Amino acid sequence: MTNPASMRPAMGALLQSCRAGAHIRPSSLPSSSLNPSLQHTAAISTTSSLLKRHNYKGARDNSDKNKTRGESAIRQTGTRWKLSVSDDPLPQPVKPEHIPAQVTDPNHGLWDFFFDRKTVAQPPTEDAKHGRGWMVEELRQKSWDDLHRLWWVCVKERNRIATANWERTKSQLGYGKAEATARDVEVRRTMRAIKHVLTERFYTWEDAVKLAETDPEVNLTGNGEAYTPTEYLEEQHLSEEEPVPEEEEGAKKEAGAATLDPAALPESKTQGEAPRL
Q1: What is the pLDDT of residues 174-198, one digit of tens each?
Q2: Where is this region: Disordered (predicted)?
Q3: How far apart are the C-alpha atoms of 269 and 78, rounded to whole Å?
Q4: How far, in Å, CA of 85 to CA of 216, rounded?
Q5: Residues in contact with 183: Cβ distance below 8 Å, sequence separation at least 6, in sequence order
Q6: Alpha carbon distance 116, 103 (integer Å)
Q7: Which CA distances in Å does 160 have to 68, 121, 122?
Q8: Percent of the chain having pLDDT more than 70?
Q9: Residue 198 resides in a domain
């Protein structure tokens, strides 16, 4: 095998001869090189693969041997030969009227995510039927249990509004967004007021703890009585009152009994008939 390093001198000499021949004038060339009719011609040679279309004997066979070529899985044109499959019958789809009805729990908690069980998104006229949010002045009079219940009522309401908005977006209904947004604003205003009231009570509790730490009558250790007053208000109140003579006290009782009319007294009711607060 020829070494590439040994071929470099021969290639350099060949390039120099080509450069020298490029400067030869046309008059110095032989007349046969200037006359096209005297020039020798030869047929263009090509590879065997390009002559396949002309039935060249030495051409390479490039025919496609893939038997599944051209089949479409999307259009389901099928195969060109039978496949070996079992004789088991294919399952037939069940008609909708033969499908048994699904029994659901009417008291399931997920029903609370919807305003109505028949329609997910209620009409805008129903969304607009709401009042204003609770004010801080009104919530200050509520107990902890009332605020706790009201908070989760607001959470449930916001879940219903979010479910209806999702259904409007999915179905592209194109209405009810403004009314639902206004309803959600009032609910969020109530929740913000609840947080405000609870924050005030927390600050008040912190101030009371700091004040109790300096009060000798309050025990914050958790051992024994939490509050041991040195004197009771009832004793102080009784000591400040002046004694009333027995004659005057009896005269007051007789005067009150004389002015009281038994017919004006309300009828007594049982515990079941009494109204609940």
Answers
A1: 888 999 999 999 999 999 999 999 9
A2: 49-91, 231-277
A3: 88
A4: 94
A5: 127, 128, 130, 157, 161
A6: 18
A7: 55, 9, 10
A8: 54
A9: yes
Instruction: State the Cα–Cα distance between residues 161 and 194, nearest whole angstrom.
Output: 20
Residue 198, exposed/middle/buried by CB under 10 A (0-12, 13-18, 19+)?
middle
At a CB cut-off of 8 Å and minimum separation 6, what does 176 contact? 121, 122, 123, 124, 127, 164, 168
Amino acid sitting at position 32: S
* Position 157 in a domain: yes
Question: Is residue 134 a part of any domain in this protein?
Answer: yes
pTM tops 0.85: no
**Backbone phi, then psi, for 134, in 5-degree steps?**
-70, 145
- Tally of domains within the chain: 1
b/e sequence 185-195, b meaning 16+ C-beta within 10 Å: eebeebbebbe
Report pLDDT digits (tens) over 218-252.
Answer: 888 888 888 888 776 666 555 655 565 666 666 66
Q: Which domain holds residue 157?
A: 116-213
What distance in Å separates the CA atoms of residue 223 and residue 219, rounded to the nearest whole number?
A: 8
Is 165 within a domain? yes
> Which pLDDT does position 110 carry in this prediction?
87
d(CA 164, CA 122): 7
CA atoms within 13 A on the CB side of 140: 7
